[in-house]
Amino acid sequence: MDTTRPGYRYVGPGDLLHLVRAAGEGARIRSAVDLARWVSARGDGERTEPFTFVVDTEGVLRLAPRRSEHVVCAGGEAVLSAGEASFREECGRWVVDEVTNQSTGYCPEVDSWPAVARALDHAGIGHPGGFTHPVVFRRCVSCGQVNVVREDHFVCVFCDEALPPGWNIDRENHRSGTDDFRRPPRSVL
Predict the structure, then answer these.
(1) What is the structure's pLDDT at 179?
(2) Max CA pair span of the chain
(3) Any bridge partners for residue 155, and if so which?
(4) By three-state DSSP, how is residue 167 classified?
(5) Cβ-based neighbour number of residue 162 at 10 Å
(6) How far does the chain reach from its first CA to its final CA, in angstroms?
(7) Tens of pLDDT along 80-104?
(8) Helices 32-40 & 113-123, crossing angle to 10 degrees?
(9) Which helix (H) or strand (E) holds 122?
């Protein structure tokens, strides 16, 4: 990750920002005890699904139920990484089973993993050593839409143009908080 960047800003749909509430962010997990307490409070069904996570700009892991928006989990703030994580009990402790950087609200780079590892290590939580399901995000320079690159096919699914090899989601010439993976691009008059 580019250490000169203070974090990833929210670049998802602007209509989700109204969900952010004061003191409504994800649970801060600073220790294995925090994690055990938080996971144990979840229902059996909820524990079988991955949880939404962010690593805030202080390097602290925050967790929320899966159907929570990453921007809500982050309290509307920038993050060092974001995605989903599932946990399993191992020798009486919760450890990360699977983890991905899948967050269409922040679109973090795959190389944001060190921030996740530091947050987990600091909290004393075991992990697999990297994203188990890495996701590559790129913005099309022709139509401006954000794409999920699959199988190293760097071609825009919206307009068939080539996608850049390097991460380019949050550049100065693009509006933050307006991308929506569900809608086709609007024409500019």
Answers:
(1) 47
(2) 61
(3) 162
(4) coil
(5) 12
(6) 37
(7) 999 999 999 999 999 999 999 999 9
(8) 90
(9) helix 113-123
